[in-house]
Design brief:
Length: 149
């Protein structure tokens, strides 16, 4: 690779759905465990990207900006992949049964209770994020304003 080329991190946006003491994540057939979201396209705002990704991935129509709860940087050991993540939290009234629009038979959505997080088969960083999300100040009064089914 030409060292004169300047490299930049890719910006990504993610969301954690929370229903009472449960949070949502998904598992692919290949064993990848993650939360909905994706890359921010050139010219998009963070919120525009989140709305697009949710619609593309699971057909979810986000009406307004949910609560930003975390941001972090990932740099691969080889230095070739650098990403900056913005993570949002959205409270929902019921455990929605999501289905992937892109991979309908390849992704399983899982509602994880807060008491199961520490023993879950997920990365330590995910456990830390999920614990933060499940314990984050709950906004009971404004949940209806964030989404539509």
């Amino acid at each position: 690779m030409d060292q004169s080329l300047q490299k930049f991190p890719r910006a990504c946006v993610k969301i954690i759905f929370r229903c009472s003491d449960y949070i949502l994540y998904y598992r692919t057939r290949k064993g990848i465990k993650d939360i909905p979201g994706g890359h921010i396209h050139f010219g998009e705002t963070i919120l525009e990207a989140l709305k697009r990704e949710l619609d593309e991935e699971i057909g979810f129509k986000l009406k307004m900006e949910p609560q930003l709860i975390d941001a972090w940087t990932y740099l691969s050991k080889d230095g070739l992949n650098h990403r900056v993540y913005f993570v949002y939290l959205l409270d929902v009234f019921q455990k929605i049964k999501f289905k992937s629009k892109e991979h309908p038979d390849g992704i399983e959505f899982i509602w994880l209770h807060k008491d199961e997080i520490l023993n879950a088969d997920i990365m330590p960083q995910q456990k830390e994020l999920f614990l933060k999300a499940v314990n984050y100040l709950k906004n009971e009064n404004n949940r209806d304003n964030f989404y539509q089914e």
